[in-house]
Each structure stands twice: as C-alpha cells, then as structure tokens.
Write a structure and sequence with these properties.
heterodimer, A: two-stranded antiparallel ribbon, B: alpha+beta, 8-stranded antiparallel sheet
C-alpha cells in the first residue's frame, strides 16, 4: 500500500487542471518542455514549475538528454492513487446500492399506507 | 435493483472527504435510513463478506451511536460517536471515532439531505483532524478489499491444488 505522504503528493499534483492536461498529453508519449508548453497560454518557466511538482510527486520523470530532457509519464503512483480511491468508491457504491433497494421498499410501503 | 444517481467523492481540503449521492426517494426516507438502527443495518453492512454485528443510533443531540462489523477473518471493526446536531429531515452532525483510531483522532461528519422533485441529494462531509488522518481513513476500505482479494486467492489455490 502506498504511504499517506506519497499519496498526498500525488493528489496535490493532480489538483491542478494544467498538470492533469500535461499528464493526459504524456499518456500519448514523451514530450519536451517546449512541446508541452505549446497548447497552453503559458511561459516555459511556468510550465517547468508544474513539471517540477509532477516530478516531485513521482508522476513523471525527466530524460538525461541535457538539451531536450523529455518528460515521461510514470504510471505507478497514478495507478496507486486511483486504485486507492477506486476501493473507497467501490465500498460506498455497494452500500448505496443496498440503500437504493431499501428506499424502494420503503416507498412501496408508504404508497400502500396511502401516504404518497 | 434500484438505480440512484452517480456517486461523487471529492477531496476539497487536505483533511476532508465529501461524498455526494442522489437517491430516488424523498428525504424523510433517506434521513430515516441514516438515523434508525433497524434501517441502518439493512444497508450499511460493510465490505464483501463482512457482517454488521452492532448497530445503535440514538437520534437526538447528545445521543450516542455505535457500529461494529465482523470480517470473515473474525476481525471486528468498530466505531462510535455522538450526535452534535440533528434537524429532521435535513441535517445531522456528529463527532466520531474508530476503535482502532486509524483516523488519528476524532472526525466531524455532517449529513445534509436536500430534496427536489421527490429525489434527495445527500452530501456527507467528513472532516478529519489532519490530512494524515484522512489518508488513513481512506485507506481502510482498501484493507477490506485486500482481504477480499486474499479470499479470491484462496479459491484459486484450492482450484490449482485439486488439478
């Protein structure tokens, strides 16, 4: 199981729409900072700042090529973070599914009692 | 199988979880399902294979509540709390604590029931003492899921052994 701090960094990194867009772009393959900055109305330093957050959260890695330093998506932390929320969601979906059934039953009872 | 609205889980602050769900029922019924023990135990019965063994809820300000679930392994998970505010049929606030305290202190939970055209939107806001506490709590159903995973693994091993 991932540690709470690691997950926190992941969620914090994912909280920003620009960073999510960067991740979506990287899901299609590696890209340089210039390539990543192109679709956004942002300076390269601003994009670099976002990349630093993503890199610190372990969501991306930077290549060694000094000139280009391409960014690459690191799938593991993302999978851990979503897997973790998926379990939580699954738990509540099951409980609420049962609550739906119970509410249906109560509505039928009320209708029989002439309350509705 | 009845169909409710989609479930939304958001993390608006680093020590909070907000669960939102739409139910195809008026709010007095949803409220009842959250505040009457006989109804609570019909749906809040935990993860796959778990059984709810204790379900008490005293629906008044200062009233106590207590839930316990038993895992297939025999492990018992318990939690309890005190109702700090209650407004039938729209609002409940409580302070709660898990026995094992993996949430790192008391949490504050509010339930808000909002009805429109016979349907109810439930918003459950859970505020933990810290972000670490929240992350610990979010991870608990994961442990249950893992237990379920082990059960599946047992089945596979039995299958393999019998081949």
């Amino acid at each position: 199981m991932p540690t709470a701090t690691a997950l926190d960094a992941t969620f914090q990194a994912l909280a920003d729409p620009t960073r999510r867009a960067i991740l979506a772009r990287l899901a299609q393959g590696e890209a340089s900072v210039m390539e990543l900055a192109a679709p956004f109305d942002m300076s390269q330093p601003a994009i670099s700042k976002h990349l630093k957050v993503l890199e610190n959260a372990g969501l991306i890695s930077r290549g060694r090529d000094a000139q280009r330093r391409p960014c690459k998506l690191e799938a593991a932390p993302l999978a851990e973070a979503t897997g973790w929320l998926i379990e939580y969601r699954k738990f509540w979906e099951k409980q609420f599914g049962q609550l739906d059934d119970l509410l249906d039953e109560l509505k039928r009872l009320e209708a029989l009692a002439g309350k509705n | 199988m009845a169909f409710g609205g989609p479930l939304t889980i958001t993390l608006p602050a680093d020590n909070q979880v907000v669960i939102t769900r739409l139910f195809d029922a008026p709010r007095h019924l949803v409220f009842a399902c959250y505040t009457q023990p006989a109804l609570i135990r019909r749906w809040l019965n935990g993860a796959e294979g778990w059984v709810m063994t204790v379900c008490e809820f005293d629906a008044k300000v200062g009233g106590k509540y207590r839930y316990e679930w038993k895992a297939p392994s025999g492990y018992v998970m318990g939690m309890g709390g005190v109702v700090t505010a209650i407004e039938p049929v729209s609002h409940v606030a409580s302070a709660e604590l898990f026995d094992d305290d993996w949430t790192g202190g008391e949490t504050v939970s509010t339930l808000d029931f909002d009805e429109e055209s016979g349907r109810t939107t439930l918003v459950n806001t859970i505020t933990y003492s810290s972000k670490e506490a929240r992350d610990g709590a979010l991870a608990t159903p994961m442990a249950e899921g893992m237990e379920y995973g082990y059960k599946k693994l047992d089945e596979v091993l039995i299958e393999l052994a019998s081949e």
